[in-house]
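Bug #77: duplicate submission created two jobs. Keeping one. Sequence:
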Amino acid sequence: MNRRDFIKGAAAAGLALRFGPRATAGPAAAPAPLPVLAAVEGQSPAAITRSAIELLGGMKAFVGRGDKVVIKPNIGWDRTPEMAACTNPEVVRTLVELVLDAGAKKAVVIDNSTNQAKRCYVRSGIQEAVKQAGGDMLFVDAYRVKKMPLRGEWIKEWDILLDVIEADKIINVPIAKVHSFCRLTLGLKNWLGATAGARNQFHQSLDKTVVDLAAFFKPRLTVLDAYRILVRNGPQGGRLSDTEMRNTVVAGTDPVAVDAFGASLFPVEPRELPYLEMARARGLGEYDLGKVRLEKRKI
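Kept job's structure:
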């Protein structure tokens, strides 16, 4: 060893003794990018919901202090949670808790149900779950509906629930189900419950409707309840034998990718759902899961 190498080595050793090994380390590695999609499997709906949100960076990544946040589940049907026609109440309750813990001023839960709202809210278990979590459960108020310009390719304007669009942040919380008109109902179709008016007209061109509504609402976060899914007689089922357990919650910042993952829980390829290709063409997201940062976890 020559004198120059000796001096350099001694200096490095001195720095290491004084400041620890980090003094001689190279530049710190950049943190790994957060996933776009997180799919968590487990036995507890609350635990897998919390874990999925944590993998995306935690609720504070999506909700600011003082925000009014609307959580939009599917509460369309007069069914108990075991029938898997409505979003699991434990998933909704956990999201309300996370939103309030993140500093939101309000966590509002609302849906324009298909069956009578008072029965749907109670029988689904969601009304009680929201109350326990400290959230606000709202019924649709006819005076809080306004015709809005959607400027969609199919829907130019429609009646929209003001309580949804006046929120600072929106979280979409659908349940994964089969559907008699469009094979599956997942996240993008869940926006029908944020509209009013003659919604039966949507079925004249349901795929285009779904994409137009998704382009209008633009949720901050989508959380797909696939804990127990409806695999027959959708969208409302009615028998326990119509359901299957998947014990999964999928959360993501790309609503198209969330629906694509949801399709994988059924014998359906994402490319078989026309609205997903339409949504990708409109720049709403990516349905090719091979192009999406996805993290899976089992707890």
